[in-house]
UniProtKB/TrEMBL annotation, chains A, B:
Tree of life domain: Eukaryota
Gene Ontology biological-process annotations: sphingolipid metabolic process
SUPFAM superfamilies named among the record's database cross-references: DNase I-like
Annotated EC: 3.1.4.12
Keywords: Hydrolase, Lipid metabolism, Magnesium, Membrane, Metal-binding, Sphingolipid metabolism, Transmembrane, Transmembrane helix
Protein name: sphingomyelin phosphodiesterase
Gene for this chain: Smpd2
Gene3D superfamilies: Endonuclease/exonuclease/phosphatase
Lineage, uppermost ranks: Eukaryota, Metazoa, Chordata, Craniata, Vertebrata
Pfam families, per database record: Exo_endo_phos
Naturally occurring in which organism (per UniProt): Passerina amoena
Length: 408, 408
């Protein structure tokens, strides 16, 4: 069916690093991003880390002419930071918040407050009757590769993302996913996501590539990147992706993939501390269904799920230990408070009246015990939730493994 | 195509009210539920409020013969309380947690801690090639009908549930939903859910009905119901539902609907404080697609969405007020602490040394100010999230309204 029209779709993906008061030269960069997007006229723009709704509103006003449709996904305390601009109508949206997203007490990492999530926009593209699914997402950041306490959380997120894609894209023609996944291409989370959804990596499939070596999106040439983070990777790392997949009677090919190279084209500063990823896809209708199902029959998939499940299991054991120790601390703090109450009552009853009662230190100790109790109880609550979610994911993975093994 | 085989599907739905240490005669009732389910041999059993995983495990062991497939959905601090038992394979599961679920500080209501959610199980039924979707859910409880502070939260949940069903069931043949929705049949949340998904109410459609008058599931005859809750409704209320819909080339008919009537059949105690709902559905394949789309073309739908959006808007304004007042309280507490620090420094510097420094009251005041600061900051954080989610829902509803109005 060579006669069917081909849709040429140009996609722009960028982690904008636009945190109010914290990101360097944010306003200048957001203006630059807006100007570039207006000039370049992409079809679909997926932005992450647009934390300020004001930045989104400014972009929306500036881009109203070239991208008449847009959506900002609201969640968490700060927001999801996700937004989509599109030349084609966004017909419907859905936000899925990951069940695990770091620890609220790790204030310096801040992930918990962002409500990281995957935003699903249903686009109706010209010439193609069926909807196009375009989630954009950001998984939990990796702060230390060697001792990565967040790995189980990131795997739960990768799993939930894969499940979400599988369940929501059954009637779609094409699935598009763009975002900062915070994982290297060979990491178990990426292998799990790709294996379980069958998504293809635009970088690996591109007929023509132009940009940073190996498609890296965090590079030392970028003046905003944290150089210490890149010490083990002198060439940079690739953590921003555009993934795609044809589901029904369509084929998708990646004609070209580009990344920026440490600065915005023709400017002296970069868009962000991440490089932008730009893909040109060819979407064509075929005479008969392409036959691609959502679950790939890759025999290596069972190994990947087994590997991921082992990591989640390790995280589960750690979470159980933390739940136990925070529970013990809460009980100890409660005992101390009860002891103090008994001592105070004894003093009131006139026992030990010959000695002066040390009011101030008593008060301070009670203060300390109460603080410890509240803190430990909160931690216990949090780790209880963590155990539930890790356990639930382990269960789901087991169910999938069983199904994979039963398959001929 | 009269020759196509008909699947007769018997469904059991019950809010089990099985809270450890709190629910009356829990163990006896769970045993009774298990025995009945084993004897009756339903095809699909949807249970809510099975808060203890041990109860689930006991049921699972007891029901292994008649219901070889089961799943327990884990979430929140206590769990989701949702579980499914099935005679047909459960192929895959997905849990969606509502973004808003009451207030963590309303300890007596407890909803926040349960992580209320919708569980999605994909069932493969005999004779029907395509998967069957069976979410079970429980929406936020209604504690006071006249002054219902939770109404916006419940509407956000109803909306998210409807959106979740629309997005996940596009390739399904039949959608089944069973659960305690905590809403009366004529409430705006139910009208929104049914209007936006096109789900049909088994009670309204049943060819034969047997049970409590008007299909009520919280009735005064049940010895465990809270009689004060039912004072305005002497006949009882209907808040537990079985809803269904055929999507592709299938038709679904409800042959029979039954409820228990204040006690378990042949016993002197009820299964729970809710009545069980039992439906017998006929699912038949048709020659050609039934043509039912997920969005119904009901002209009243726009009115329902408008009504719901107004309620969510009222909730949004209330949440903004609460965010503002908790923020102001936090600032005041911080000012008090700073003032105290200044006073302490002044004393240390020797100012006002002629008067004795009131150490104890100073300490107590600092304690109070710190407590108020932590509390107010926590509330501020929470209401900020609430504002984001209500605002996001309002936006989504607006998008849908625009699309509904543009439709011919």
């Amino acid at each position: 069916m060579e006669g069917e029209p081909t849709l040429r779709l140009r996609i722009f993906n960028l982690n904008c690093w636009a945190i109010r008061y914290l990101s360097k030269r944010r306003q200048q960069r957001v203006r630059l991003i807006g100007d570039t997007l207006r000039q370049e006229g992409f079809d679909l723009v997926l932005l992450q880390e647009v934390w300020s709704e004001q930045d989104y509103s400014e972009l929306k006003v500036k881009l109203a002419g070239s991208y008449p449709f847009s959506h900002y996904f609201r969640s968490g305390v700060i927001g999801s930071g996700l937004c989509v601009f599109s030349r084609f109508p966004i017909l419907d949206t859905l936000l899925y918040q990951y069940s695990l997203n770091g620890y609220p007490y790790m204030l310096q990492h801040g992930d918990w407050f962002c409500g990281k999530s995957v935003g699903l926009g249903l686009d109706g593209f010209a010439g193609i009757r069926a909807p196009l699914l375009s989630p954009s997402l950001q998984l939990h950041a990796e702060y230390c590769r060697d001792k990565d306490a967040y790995l189980p959380h990131r795997l739960v997120q990768a799993w939930e993302l894969a499940q979400f894609i599988r369940h929501t894209s059954k009637a779609a023609d094409v699935v598009l996913l763009g975002g900062d996944l915070n994982m290297h291409p060979e990491d178990v989370g990426i292998r799990l996501l790709r294996g379980w959804t069958g998504l293809q990596d635009a970088f690996a499939e591109a007929m023509h590539f132009e940009g940073c070596k190996n498609g890296c999106t965090l590079v030392p040439d970028n003046c905003f990147t944290d150089k210490s983070e890149l010490l083990p990777f002198p060439l940079g790392i690739r953590i921003d992706y555009i993934l795609y997949k044809a589901i029904s009677s369509f084929t998708v090919k990646c004609e070209e993939l580009k990344t920026t190279t440490g600065r915005a084209p023709g400017m002296d500063i970069p868009f962000s501390d991440h490089e932008a990823v730009m893909a040109t896809l060819h979407i064509q209708r075929q005479g008969q269904p392409a036959g691609a199902t959502l679950g790939t029959a890759d025999p290596a998939l069972a190994d990947v799920v087994t590997e991921a499940r082992a990591e989640v299991g390790a995280g589960l054991r750690a979470a159980r230990r933390q739940r136990y120790s925070s529970g013990r601390m809460a009980v100890l703090a409660l005992l101390l408070l009860l002891l103090q109450a008994a001592a105070a009552l004894a003093t009131l009853a006139g026992l030990g009246a010959e000695q002066p009662f040390p009011k101030l230190s008593f008060c301070l100790l009670a203060f300390l015990a109460l603080g410890a109790l509240v803190l430990a109880a909160g931690l216990h609550l949090f780790h209880t939730m963590e155990v539930k979610m890790l356990h639930g994911t382990e269960d789901q993975m087991w169910m999938v493994l069983r199904a994979l093994q039963e398959r001929p």
